[in-house]
Amino acid sequence: MNKSCRASVSVIFKSEDNILQKRAKQCERILINSGNNMEEVKRIQQMTVGKINELQAAKEKLSKECDKVEVDIHTLKYRELANKEETCALESTILELKKKIAEESECEQHLIVKKIQAERDKEKSQKELIKTHEIFLKAIAYYKKKLHLRLRFDENGLILVHFLDISTPGCQMCSLKLSHDDGNKWNLLGMEPVLPFEKPLANKLETTQDIQGFISHVRKLYIQISGSKKQHSTGKKVSKKP
């Protein structure tokens, strides 16, 4: 082989050697870069796994919160339904109470009217009672003076009438026992001495309620009995003298 050929071969090998060296350096850089990429990939994978775990944990948390929200929604719906029923019951109760209040108010007004009327009637009755009592006292005073009576009121509310100027044998003073109840009614309870027709006299007083006429009539009867008994007693004394 001549020198030119050798030189050419040497140049070719040198050129090839340079190329190989370049390629070797490129491969070395690729390997270095690949190693770096592998580390990055590994780091990214680790980060990805961490994120996935975080997302799963967040998903589980959200799922639990969703379940709780659903329970709360169900509870609220149940309470809403219960509140509606309770509201209806309360509205019904309120209506009943308003009705009762209206009735009580009407009843109260009615009672107020009755009270006012009762007070007026009471005042009128008191005036009439005072007037009647005054008339009664005047009549009693008149009869005391004219008929010689004495009136006495005992602790039981009974009225005792004593005829001061009439007496009969065995009875120093003729008297009547009368009652006058809240209904303004006179009744004969007893008499001394007892007349044979006491019961008809009592019935007549109960029917007529004419106390003045009754006392006057009984006085006359006692006078008659007293006079007849005195005459009978005098006759007996005269017949004994011979």
* The CATH fourth-level homologous superfamily of the domain at 148-240: Chromosome segregation protein Spc25
Query: What overall geometry do the principal axes of the alpha carbons give?
Result: rod-shaped
Q: What is the CATH topology descriptor of the domain at 148-240?
A: Copper Amine Oxidase, Chain A, domain 1
What is the N-to-C order of secondary-structure elements (H for helix, E for strand)? HEEEEHH
* Count of individual beta strands: 4
Structural class: alpha+beta
Uncertain regions spanning at least 5 consecutive residues:
232-242
CATH C-level class of the domain at 148-240 is Alpha Beta
**First-residue to last-residue Cα separation:** 234 Å
How is the largest sheet built, in terms of strand order?
Answer: 1-2-3-4
For the largest beta-sheet, the strand count, sense and barrel status come to: 4 strands, antiparallel
Protein name: Kinetochore protein SPC25
Organism: Zootermopsis nevadensis
